[in-house]
Amino acid sequence: MDENLSQVISDVSIFTNGRLIHGNLTIGADGRIAEIQETPYTKASTRWLLPGVIDTHVHFREPGLTQKADIESESRAAAAGGVTYVFDMPNVKPTTTTPVALAEKHRLYQQKCLVNYGLWYGITTSNIDEALALFGQPDSPKRDEICGFKVFLGSSTGGMLMNDQQKLRQLFIGTQRVIGIHSESEDIIRRNAEKYRAMFGEQEVPVEYHSKIRDTAACMATTRMAIELACETGAQLHVCHLSTADELDLMGPPNVTGEVCVAHLWFSDEDYRRLGTRIKCNPAIKRIEDREALRRGLTDGRIFSIATDHAPHLLGDKQGGALRAASGMPSIQFSLLAMLELSRQGVLPLSKVVELMCQHPAQRFGLAGRGEIRVGNFADLVLVDSNKTTTVRKENILSKCGWSPFEDTTFSHRICGTWVNGLQVY
């Protein structure tokens, strides 16, 4: 190591081995943590050095939807939020469902992304054989080019619905890659939508009915089916954005992990009156009872990881009601701050924030040397001041869409710096 190229972050509380210690951290010229030196102190530092957040569920909208967001703008927002690794979803234009589209997306990310990245590969009824051959096995020629397979069991932005049970079974049998699912029953959603469309006639169906259209039954039907299939086949299933109390009771099989998103932990259906379509997302924000159950799941072992489903839209796209307004919201810049706020409120300890946002994602997706502050690991780090506040204003929002559902919220912490592979990017 060339000591002239090393960096020292000094006089901080470093989160290592499950606790905060006071000391100095040295980053080597190779971008890895070279030394952690514990030093005596008379009082605890308010500056915490935490592992960088690994967000395994984002929509950066490039290629094809760059009027909403792009790789540069959203990775800049990620870095400002202490996120050092993102996994981007395949529902862009063209969808990431062919080797050609995947190669182009890699090219764009390598040029523009300020943080580490992985790419989900979308599975449809027509590409499954090729996908399994190219990416699905340990000896597949392009295995390392994707982070996992994404399946939309319910329709969402991008039109990638996969509702062929035979093809789904083929996927579950054919790979030990992580299979992420968007879990909502299209049949139940369609029936509910027709019911409320008839009820309101020519009027817009109010956004408050979004959680009645994409209801608990819609989530439970496909989540139960997918978990049963995973248990039968041994597939590595990752249930994305859990949103109901009932789904938590299905968690437990060792090959099944459940993700919850910050929005479902922060908001409830009571917030539709205040925020309207700004919090319209799929699956829907549901009852306060669901939110409280999800919060309990953070500490009782049923929830494995926290992500954002960061999904920017222009405010013009968010006009309309439950059936017309676009679903999705930007959240990555303030996700760690929101979880630290919940920790401050006693919902979960700091150790669980780090475990669910950093350690567990790294473990699930095989990110060696990530997710923990240890000598030899990559220096993916975020410096937080626990004694300085952050108020979300339009002028400090970095997502290209220019708005946030957290506007006017004051968080009790501030992100002061972010390092990716040893380089300070924020």
Task: Give the tags.
single chain; 426 residues; alpha/beta; TIM Barrel; eight-stranded parallel β-sheet; 13 helices
Q: How is the topology of this model organized?
A:
Layout: E1 7-16, E2 19-27, E3 33-38, E4 47-51, E5 53-58, H1 71-80, E6 83-88, H2 99-112, E7 116-122, H3 128-135, E8 148-152, H4 165-174, E9 178-182, H5 186-200, H6 210-213, H7 216-233, E10 236-242, H8 245-248, E11 256-261, H9 262-266, H10 272-275, H11 288-297, E12 305-307, H12 335-344, H13 350-364, E13 381-385, E14 390-391, E15 410-411, E16 414-420, E17 423-424
Parallel strand pairs: 1-4, 5-6, 6-7, 7-8, 8-9, 9-10, 10-11, 11-12
Antiparallel strand pairs: 1-2, 2-3, 4-13, 13-16, 14-15, 16-17
Mean pLDDT, as a whole number?
Answer: 96
Number of strands: 17
Total count of helical runs of at least 4 residues:
13
Spans of at least 5 consecutive residues whose pLDDT stays below 50 are none
Biggest sheet architecture: 8 strands, parallel
For the record, the CATH architecture stands as Alpha-Beta Barrel
Give your account of this protein's structure.
By secondary structure, the protein is α/β, with parallel strands linked by helices. The chain has 13 helices and 17 strands. Strand 8 (148-152), helix 4 (165-174) and strand 9 form a beta-alpha-beta unit. The longest helix has 18 residues, at 216-233. It is globular, with a radius of gyration of 21 Å. The mean pLDDT is 96.
Task: Provide a compact summary of the structure.
By secondary structure, the protein is of the alpha/beta class. The protein has 13 helices and 17 strands. It has an eight-stranded parallel β-sheet. A seven-stranded mixed β-sheet has the order 3-2-1-4-13-16-17, covered by helices on one side.
